[in-house]
Amino acid sequence: MPHPSNRIFKDYKKLSQLANSGTVFVAFDTETTGLRASNDRIIEIGAVKFNINGEIARYSALINPEIHINSAATAVNNITDFMVKNCPPIRDILPKFVDFIGSDSILVAHNAQFDINFLNSELERNNFPCIKNLTIDTLQLSRWAYPQFERHKLQYLAEKLCIPVSEAHRAGDDAFVCMQLFLQIVKDKTHPEIAFRKLYDIVKTLRAEGGCPWDRNQTPLSIRRDLMEESFEAIDAITRNDVPHIREELGDVLLNAVMLSYMHEQSNQFTLEQVLNDICEKLIRRHPHVFANSSGKSEMKASPSDSAQVLAQWDKIKENVEGRKTSCTLDEVPEYFPPLLKAYKMLKKAGKKGFEWECEEDVKAKVLEEWQEVEEAREAFSAKEVQKSPFTVSDGNSELNEKQLHLEEEIGDLFLSLVNYSRWLGVDPTIALDRANRKFYKRYSSVEHEMHNAAIPMDKNHLAEMMDFWNKTK
């Protein structure tokens, strides 16, 4: 049972604030004659005082328990009766250890409940006040920080995190390893947390009374285009391997995601914390081959060996665990996706269900077939009926309407076949078209700039000059 004076720190979201505020910690460990604090005794205490910058001081003591150390205890920690027979009893050690800890430090221990219970039981037996320091249990902390690990015993964690161990199950060394584990978790988990918290606080300030008028006026609907544009700018930077711009554009994407989350938080719909927890839970749920505690385990027949098997397992989890099964596979594609993206997603989902061409040549042949059908639909128009601007219907000319709608349909089929061909070639058509748009913009703006400098009008009569400048930009 937990000792009544025990206080275990569990608010890991504040770990960064705690660690970086100058707090002094004491990692400690005890070795005992058994597992019951009421009957067994402490035979060794080891401790390391430290802060975020590292070790400050150490304490270590072997203790004469004044009872026999049984073979089971010795098998664990290699401490024998002979080793402790001339050592001081616990009543002499406790005041020194409590003084080393201090009343303001935060204790750190692995499976802290065990060590705290033993320590306070020894204090009570010897008529000393119990310690009431706030305590961090690195066993629970590591489960939070590293859910991907199969086990969380101290020596296992030391091995996984490359923390050196000299004498496992000896109090001094275990305390030192515990300190190293704690500092590693702080390093792994709190530095991004600090930066993310800073971004969140800035967004709150911008949206607050007296903040920025533009930011305060934005709504989830108004910010949609910003999110889309920043995402494409990040994709473009990644495609060009422009590392400084990748860093900048990913920041802009994060800003929009945090801004949108906080807008919904302001209207009491959901919080940013819920958004982050939801994606963490989803990742664990959909990767049962990685996370032992995944609720998607029921859909894992065997550990997947390639990406295709992972995606197949993913779909089963979505359908059977998350309850996302639909009457038609294509219903999983959002209705209001941009048409190009929607076409790509629908074809991809249909292909995963086996509705697919046999080979690349068949896909290419379909593109050529659709192109021919566009040409046939185009040939139905007379020269005077050709339209330079898109339209769906015209007044009073049902025959022309029928021709135009048929051409529109065939061009739509051509686009769909081109999207499918690009998918077969491993190209996302939305990203490819975005690159083409950016390339066209860059080259055309250069042409316009050169024409302006040369004082040449931008019109059909000077197409040759424009094409010369165009070719120079390539």
Overall mean pLDDT score? 90
Structural class: alpha/beta
Number of strands: 6
Task: Tell me about the largest β-sheet.
Answer: 6 strands, mixed
Bulk shape: elongated
Give the % helix. 55-70%
Low-pLDDT stretches are 1-5
One letter per element, helices H and strands E, the order comes to EHEEEHHHEHEHHHHHHHHHHHHH
Q: What is Rg?
A: 34 Å
In short:
This protein is α/β, with parallel strands linked by helices and 474 residues long.
Describe this structure in words.
- The protein is an alpha/beta fold.
- 56% of the residues lie in helices and 8% in strands.
- The chain is built from 18 helices and 6 strands.
- It has a 6-stranded mixed β-sheet, with helices on both faces.
- Strand 3 and strand 4 (54-62) form a beta hairpin.
- The termini are far apart.
- Residues 1-5 have low confidence and may be disordered.
Defining key terms:
6 strands; 474 residues; 56% helix; six-stranded mixed beta sheet; disordered N terminus; elongated; alpha/beta
